[in-house]
Amino acid sequence: MSSTSGNSLLALVTGALIGAGVGILFAPDKGSKTREKIKDGFQEAKDDLKQKLDEVSEQLKNKLSSSKDTLEDSFEDLISNVSYKTEDVISFLEQKLAELKEQNAKLQK
């Protein structure tokens, strides 16, 4: 390692230690209280995140459930429409068959 890199690293570590020391000296609370506040802050953040995740999960479940119901209704409507269309096609084909039978009867005479 070069002398310049070593000096830069030493300066960086020294600055970090001085900053930590000054932070501790000017901290408004004792270390134990500060650690407790940090712990409480993390716990609150964790609880908030869990609550938001639960809310989003519930919303997603509701949307999926409603989408499923909508899809089932749409499928039933489609089946019903296809059934009606099938009846229309069968009626049309029966009518054409009757017409062809008439034409065939005329040709047979």
TrEMBL record:
- Transcription regulation as a keyword of this entry, yes or no, is no
Q: Which UniProt keywords apply?
A: Coiled coil, Membrane, Transmembrane, Transmembrane helix
Query: What name does UniProt use for this protein?
Result: YtxH domain-containing protein
Q: Where are the transmembrane segments?
A: 6-27
**Coiled coil ranges:** 39-103
- What organism is the protein native to? Flavobacterium keumense
